[in-house]
Batch of 4 targets.
Target 1
Amino acid sequence: MKKLLIFIAMLFVCVGTVQAKTVDHFYGMIDSDIKSEDKVAGSTVLAGANVQMDGSADGVSFLLGNQVVFNGDSEYAVFAGNSLEVDGQVNKDAFIAGNLIDIKKGAKLNRDVVIAGADVKISGTISRNISVYASSVSFDGVKIEGNVKVYATSLKVDSDTQIGGNLSYPSDAEASIEKGTVKGEIIKTKEIQNEEESLANLIMNKIWSFMSVILIFAVLSLAASKMFINIQNEYEKFDFNKGMETFTKGLLFLIFVPIVILILLLMTIGIPLALILLALYFIIVYLSTVFTGYLLGFKLWQKFFNKDINMLVVGIFGYAILFILNLIPGISFIVSMLSTIIGIGIIYDVVIKKMGAKE
């Protein structure tokens, strides 16, 4: 994963570590190594192989990388990567996803927290509720004022931990809970099913998929940036009717193209064309998320920040939101289907229709 992230970062031309400054708008940096001490009066995106944030953000901090270190201060936090260390303060909600996650003793997470990872170690202070989805979880001297929900195969709670609310965990998990650490109830939930793919592997696969989409977007934005400029022009004004039109085009394409391919396969002379169409069909379906993520990032950027468009940052912003939505149980399937259908509609508008118009 580290090599992949370094390769992605090398595709971007940005400045890495810079002197601390005050920024009064949305701020983004993408490089192989980033250390930010800036004070941002808005949200920020930092992405690269090694990312460290020591400054502050009066908004949402999106930190994405192989190794992510957060020592700063932010209103909201979204951290994703391979190895994550959190030793700063998040004043409101935080979402953290990765492989190795370490919430240090100096960390202060002042509202609800959701963590998804493989090996998770939690210290510091959490002022409300926390939900953890992982393979193994250890609470090491953490003070939690609310409830704790754990979905893991291994759980350890040491004697220095204080949990003000209830603690729930799967009944078949290997649990070591010191007496007197939980003021509320200790609740055992349904067993974790023994499946070939563990929750940790599922999360890592999603992270890998997310980084792959960013890599594809980076290549496309450099090789065919006009496609994304066409998205901006085509969807400058985007209302309900335009959204339904795009959705309908994508749905019709998704349904009727396979029917056409099947008909061609039934005719000997049509088999070569059918195979070509089948390959193009799968390519379009695969790339659909790239276009949906960019449109989402573009419209949100346009609505909330109203600044000059940075194509790379806008794309990563949109994909990060889709990634988070895909991790939420119950809606991930809906999000994936909508992303695919809308993305196909976008491809039709900005690629297929444009090519037909030129002819």
Target 2
Amino acid sequence: MKYHIEKNTVQETLVIPLYGRKLCTEQFPNLFRDEKAVELIDRLDYDFSELEKNSKSFAHRFGALEVAMRENDLMCEVKDYLKEHPKAAVVNLGCGLDQTAENCDNGECRIYNLDLPNVMDVRNALLPEKDRVKNVACDLNDTSWFEKIDASNGVVFIAAGVFYYFKTEDIKKLFSSMAKHFEGGRLVFDSANKRAVKVMLKTWVKEAGITSIEDYFSVSDVKKDLAPWFDKAKVTSKGYMLGYNDLKDKSVPKLFRLLSKIGDGFMKMQIVKIEF
């Protein structure tokens, strides 16, 4: 039986990134493959007709490439951490139906997927817990979830497309608390400057009745914007689109590579790494 997703609900927000990963797998298989996303699409009772209609458009194809690069970047950082801490906890913050953590499984690490309760209802139905994989329903701003993570052998956190929807003051409070509680851990996430965040959140801000996004989290310069938040943590970044892959694969149009340069440069699309 298929899992029904209602239109105009929080649960519907899971569908677009999931479909994006399916699109990546079909259009850029040399760069990214997520067979589980393809499988999950078939298990959802949802009208995909509009997404399918737009799937060949320029914007949606480039959006699929963005998803592919972000997932690959985060996986690269997780696997790098696991080389030195093979039994570490891998924690996917705001996971939705994403399986980045599972795709990095080395057979020894512990995996935690965190999201809001109504989102986790869907995940538990489609991607239930199993050995070494836990699904945790929580609000990330309520740091009581810290106690549910076994970080005794190290911990690496990832967040994909999550922190744009948080206010800067809340992110600062969260990151500061994580640095104190998870010393020796790593946090990796995608970010962009205020110009890019305004574009990304335009529709969401309107629907939420928010008149300004000036207080929402954005990063232009990690050294100036984030490093002062910490006493000991090391903060670095790489380009989101070209920092980990030169995108010279034949499946990637040259114009997409040019747009990727603009995104990494003008929009400051980047993968931020914080070593606590």
Target 3
Amino acid sequence: MTPASLTPNRRRLGRTVTTRAAEAVLRALIYICGWLCIVILLAIAAFLVYNSVRSLREAGLTTMLSGMQWYPTSDPGRFGLAPLVVGSLLVTAVALALAVPVGIAAAVYISEFSGGAVKEVSKSVIEFLAAVPSVVYGLIGVAVLIPAVKDSFGLSSGMTALTGGIVLGIMSIPTVISISEDALHAVPVELRQGSAALGNTRWQTTYKVTVPAASSGIFASVMLGLGRAIGETMAVLMLTGNAAVMPHGVLESVRTMTGTIAAEMGEVVQGGLHYSVLFTVGLVLFAITFGINLAADLVLERQQRRWRR
């Protein structure tokens, strides 16, 4: 065999070795990034716990969670977190009630029924809406939504959980639409063709085949929308009234956990009890979001197992 005939084999061997080395490096980077995310998550939890130790020792977590009064500057201070937790959950529930059906319906229309020009324009508008700062949404809510809610329900003030939830829902809609549309777009076209071959209409194909096949991605979009709503600060500060009392409905003023931290952190003594309590509020918020996402992952994994069967 001549040296010229060995050259292509050597080149192929060289490419194979280089490809394997590159794959090994990429696998190592992905492995490191995965563990780095876990380390960062644990570091955040440890940081919150470390700064919450004083409040957990002096006030007690059970006492704070069951407390109905939030008067941190009284003597002695009253650090009841129940109104803050309920207020956050109320606002988030209103936001999801608006964002989930509207967002998923819009994603289905854009992915399955709209034409090329409409789809491109719609996606551009959605990306723009996602980039609008939350304070701008808050200003629009102050100027438009607060008077509308006040007049519609005959309230003394339009700064309610309903007002904040509607604005947060509008802010979450672009996230739900974008992720859901990507999930629907990723469904193989063969599934749609097979459904059409069986005599299903386009609408029947959508709700019997396409949406169930993309359900994991749609569910992920809902969870991201929930994260956007429960973690928002500026809009709820401007729209919910910031009344730290136990609410009994969405037409009352509320104060959220994020709003409490943002409003009071700049005025507390660093290292003091009030300072530590605010970190406890952050720890409770962290635990709630972690628990929701963990439950969502378990549900999603069970759903994927059922589909694999």
Target 4
Amino acid sequence: MTVRMTVRLLFSCELLRIETMQRTKSQFSRILALDRQIRAGNYPNCILFADEWEVSRKTVQRDVDFLRDQLGAPLEYSRERKGFFYSDENWFLPALNLQEGDLVNLLIAVKAAGQYRGTPVAEHLQSICGKIAELLPEQISVDPELLYAGFSFTAPPTRAISPPVWKALVRGLLSRRMLRLHYAGKQKPFDVCPYHLANLQGEWYLFVGFDDSADIRQLSVGRIDQAVLLPKPFAVPETFDAGKLLNETFQRFAGDNQAHAVKVVFDKEVAPWVLERQWHPEQKVKTRLDGSVELSFRAKGLFEVMRWLLAWGCHVTVKSPKELRNMLNDEIRAMAQKLQTAESE
């Protein structure tokens, strides 16, 4: 059954897990609150509104000026009621007009963004979606089952990211200034040139360069304990191509600067499962006469590739590179030895 629910409540349930959205002291929120009071016939004034929002009267006066001069509100002051009112009651703040299908799609996107709860990214998305919710009509018909029962998103556990670290990284990227990082497992801090931020399989990674080297390294943002923005500027090399870099990344790990040509063959028994997914952005697939499947791609770093292949067990054969085949042999022998040790205990 279709139930009439406020858009504001729907967004708060998905983003904040509380019954009502928290009020902020941004100008955007103040103007919306001021508009609601005026439209309700409460005749708000600068003194009372400033006290309610715990801001200065000059701040509220700037909000009033913005509402009148920038948004074109027919705002007048009643000396008798000692407050503001609209001389034209048919005037409304600019609003978004969405159909029910548009709203559902938007809320699905919000729910998908919930994978990043607890990160600075989620906080910004929460703020942006909250503003969108404020601009939507007060009431809209929507079936809650579409949101809470019909759609789900899951993601692997992610490392927590410090907001000050995130802020410093973004500033370094935008201003092209070097960063001094304190990284987990490293005794001393080191300076880097931040080239690119990427989210791989739910984890954030920073791709950096160094002053004295042309190498590019991949750092886990969750392992950065502290980031200090330095005054020293840097220039991103003309040869740096984030798209190409990520196309040669397998899952989360880009590894070193050497790209390996990987070629593996999957047995006929697992071929349908291999063919139904894209495992690499630039993979090449070949179905062989015996029903097996040959998969080839280029990847920087082989550790993630090895872990992925282990999940297929005896149904996969590594053709190249030899280094990957040796890594798998060493890992399988170590696993077998541990199993034998466990059985003898």
